[in-house]
Amino acid sequence: MKHRMPDWAEALSRRRMLRLRLFAGGAAAGLAAGLSVALYRWLIGEAETLRTVLATQALEDAAEGSVLPFALWAAGLLAAALVLSALCRWEPMASGSGIPQVKGMLLGWVHLRWLRVLLVQIFGGALAIGAGLSLGHAGPAVEIGAAAAQGTSRAAGRRRAEERCLVTGGAGAGLAAVFNAPLAGMLFALEELHHTFSASVILPAMAASVTAACTVRFFFGSHTIFLFTGTAPLEAGELPWVVLLGAVCGAAAVPFNAGLLAARRFYGLPCFRTRERKIGFALALAGLAAFLCPALTGGGDRLINAVTQCPPGFFVLAGLALAKSLFTFASFGSGVPGGFFFPSLTVGALTGAAAGTLLIDAGLLPPEAMTNVIILSMAAFFAGSVRAPITGAVLLLEMTGRFEQLMPLALAAATAYVASGLLGGVPIYEALLRRQRADAGIGTLPEPRLVELAVENGSALDGRRTADLPLPPRTVLAEIRRGGEPIVPGAETVVRAGDQLAFLTQCGDAAQLERLVEGTLPAGGVHAHKK
Q: Of 46, 74, 518, which Cα lies nearest the Cα of 288?
């Protein structure tokens, strides 16, 4: 006689199969994301090479008295403006960075047409960056990865809850593929996009990021983004200057974020009534930069490498940081496909290099420490702007291959995070997402969300009955996992440190739940906090 599996054992079996499906789905999403980002990176590289060749040829012809190359250059920029405008009109959700759109999609506020987004971000982004705009390819790569993951999920007939996990993994895979940084891609998906470290998110994010990175390495090799040489671990007596650099870069990230948000107000002037005028103005600046200061065009990786090899003086570095910031504001505000992720790293490198020059001139740091200063400053500026210090530190580790810098990177990123917060800085992608919601007239979201949180030692929930938990309205504690075993919570069940709590809640209450579990809410709980 065949024995029927108990209900609880059957539920556990379904849970294990779900995790296997998520892992396999994450690998499929990572493959699709890796192939898409590989095409995107190749197009950008070819476009930037073509721009450099044409600009050099135009300058040589101009020296011989011919103005035809400049006329052709202007005609090409005008054509690019018309094409980019048409692409943005065809798929508005592919405009800009792409990361706020992915965050909105995960929260249920945004619905993306994944194939259109994929095509516009790949070809429109390559055209915008290739034309010389000060834009990065990391933000669009995140949306490309998310769109590719959504496409694979729809093809496999995944459920909505599974698709959200796969899209999170695909977005992280996009970042992993563009920077050849699988660990940073996984952490970005968890820390910035999903804000949880549950197994249902970790498995597809890990599988997708590793698969995407391996796919891209097949085409581009395994070398790091930056080829820094001559770095050495900082001495213990130099760590106070790391804190100072972190504070400077964290403070500098606040006006940088404000400039990005204010760019739309600039393009709201009457002279920019049409989309074509906005894009045309930004491309006109790109055309001038291509001839006057080519280092300002594109994301800025060549500028960072050049500054590292032969750092100029303080005023040159400060001027370059200001010019790069203003050009980035104008480029991003135009609304074309392209982000500010990489340009922000460039501004951080220039800002830190300027501060490092003063420290070196004062004899507080040795000259050979400049490369370390630039690496630390990029991580600190990212942490101050995005407010994701863990991702920032790990990203720079993988981008440079300098794993001996782990402790200074973590110190600089944490300091920048604190400095930015003390100065009233807000996470830039959260601010852009709120503006996107306001533009769409979206209020509260009725769609529920599963949030998994861990009870740490010292949490205010440790030792409390589930009936006494001050949960937000329309929030239910669905499950407790203790030592890997599931517990169905009852009114008298006591929460212990180390428990994994699974809540079903509204998306808008997820942050309150995190503060509640961490023990950062007032004694009265959520309701007291709202007051």
A: 74
